Amino acid sequence: MYFLAKGRTENSVDNDIYKLYNKVSMESICISVPRERAELIRQKLMEEHLLRNDLKIRYDDNNVYLPVVREVHMEDTDLKKMDFKEIKRRQSFREVITSKVTADGQISSFDVVGDIAIIRIPSELRGYKEEIGNAILSTNKHVKVVCTDNGVKQDYRIRDIEVIAGEKRTETTHVEHGVKITVDVAKVYYSPRLASERERIARCIKPGDIVIDMFAGAAPFSVVIAKLAEPSRVYAIDTNPCAVKYANMNVKMNKVDDTIRVMEGDAGNIVPSLGMADHIIMNLPHSSHEFFPTAVNAGRTIHYYEITDKNKIEERLEWLGNQAEKQGKKLEVKNWRVVGSYSPSKIKIGADLLIR
Of 144, 194, 195, 192, which is closest to residue 171 (Cα–Cα)? Predict the structure, then answer.
């Protein structure tokens, strides 16, 4: 029960409530997604810069409602118009940095693994790394550690990491698709940007399939596949002892040790002893081509990743076909796609290759 002030009517009260609500809300197009697929769709929308970050996501018992910048048509989703609460805008880390840094230079975006932010800082701004690190901490409450990525070391292809702000540690636990991945970002390479790829590959796996993850790292591909699909066996291989340590940890933590067998060693030596696999994952983008003949003789479908020049993609796919022919096999490119950028002239591609 409520009481009306003198001269007020129920209609005038309703009007005031409506006005008050609309001061903090806004109508927007949105995608209605079943709750179990919401995180995957959210990540895809973020990757395509389609998710509105000025409005709060809504949800109910069955669905999640993701506000978008324009009409988006995706499988198993519906388009709606709804009211969303506005998010009070905070300064971005770039705005904070601009107010503190006087040198010329462009700050790139950064990756977040668990509660660790990893950023590449151009040489002209290295003298401001503490200011940059503290700016990221102050504008991202969930980030507890900020590290610079100074390039990739040759040994095990891991990042050259330096902590520049926050807690003095490099181990964290990242969650994707309900899977927990613990990793030390200074000792094992891990990219959160491949989360959609890992889910996509998992959806390709049929019950009873055998999978070989040739360069498993901390085993994110292997664990996501074991959790989302029903393979009979997944072999997770890596030469890096630290990667093997974390792979074993993640397999046990996610309770998939009955499916995944973690193996330490050179994939070129191990793979021929495993017999034929239904799927082989080759995520070693600088060196995958060196191991391709081994994979061709051991798998029916190869999920191949490589960093290549933007204008040489067709040339590389043709080269892979020629390598397959040298092994007495026929290669069919089922599809290929750009999965990330690397430099102004290079990109990372992923290709699904059928071997006959």
Answer: 144
Whole-prediction pTM: 0.74
Mean pLDDT of 25-50: 90
236 contacts 263 by C-beta, under 8 angstroms: yes
How many residues does this entry show for the chain?
A: 356
| Nearest partner of 284 among 308, 305, 313, judged by Cα | 305
The span from the CA of 149 to the CA of 190, in Å, is 12
Question: Rounded to whole angstroms, how far apart are CA atoms 245 and 128?
Answer: 35
Domains of the chain in start order, with CATH, are 10-85 (3.30.70.2580), 93-169 (3.30.300.110), 190-355 (3.40.50.150)
CA–CA distances in Å: residue 206 to residues 211, 224, 226, 228: 10, 14, 11, 11
Closest CA to 295 of 278, 317, 312: 278
The pLDDT score that the predictor gives to residue 10 is 43
Query: What does the alpha-carbon distance between residue 283 and residue 189 come to, in Å, rounded to a whole number?
Result: 11
CA-to-CA separations, 180 to 186, 249, 267, in angstroms, rounded: 18, 10, 25
Question: Helix, strand or coil for residue 299?
Answer: strand
pLDDT tens for 261-298 read: 999 999 999 999 999 999 999 999 999 999 999 999 99
Structure confidence by residue, pLDDT tens digits, 292-308: 999 999 999 999 999 99
